């Protein structure tokens, strides 16, 4: 939780955290968007918000895909423990449709 201790949790809703975890799992913004049932643009905007909150790129381009940064990987456990990983993707993201 060290990385999350100084973060304003009110700026991190379930959709945002679920998007972060999905991009981590899929290692692709396009595949994450498809899985979440949202546009690629919506995922990109969410990642931009997270980059500002965590002051880290979180994901960097590698070849045709993306790779998570050390900070993103370190945040994964904290985000999962906040419950974002427990929420159903379909339920969590339906407000974007």
Automatic annotation (TrEMBL):
<protein>
    <submittedName>
        <fullName>HTH-type transcriptional regulator LeuO</fullName>
    </submittedName>
</protein>
<feature type="domain" description="HTH lysR-type">
    <location>
        <begin position="17"/>
        <end position="69"/>
    </location>
</feature>
<dbReference type="InterPro" id="IPR036388">
    <property type="entry name" value="WH-like_DNA-bd_sf"/>
</dbReference>
<keyword id="KW-0805">Transcription regulation</keyword>
<keyword id="KW-0804">Transcription</keyword>
<keyword id="KW-0238">DNA-binding</keyword>
<dbReference type="InterPro" id="IPR050389">
    <property type="entry name" value="LysR-type_TF"/>
</dbReference>
<dbReference type="InterPro" id="IPR000847">
    <property type="entry name" value="LysR_HTH_N"/>
</dbReference>
<dbReference type="InterPro" id="IPR036390">
    <property type="entry name" value="WH_DNA-bd_sf"/>
</dbReference>
<dbReference type="GO" id="GO:0003677">
    <property type="term" value="F:DNA binding"/>
</dbReference>
<dbReference type="Pfam" id="PF00126">
    <property type="entry name" value="HTH_1"/>
</dbReference>
<dbReference type="GO" id="GO:0003700">
    <property type="term" value="F:DNA-binding transcription factor activity"/>
</dbReference>
């Amino acid at each position: 939780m060290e990385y999350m201790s100084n973060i304003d949790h009110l700026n991190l809703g379930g959709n945002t955290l679920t998007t972060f975890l999905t991009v981590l799992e899929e290692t692709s913004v396009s595949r994450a968007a498809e899985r979440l049932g949202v546009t690629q643009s919506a995922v990109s905007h969410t990642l931009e918000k997270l980059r500002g909150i965590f002051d880290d790129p979180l994901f960097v381009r590698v070849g045709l895909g993306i790779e998570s940064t050390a900070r993103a990987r370190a945040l994964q456990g904290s985000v999962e423990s906040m419950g974002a990983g427990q929420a159903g993707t379909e339920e969590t993201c339906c407000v974007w449709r």
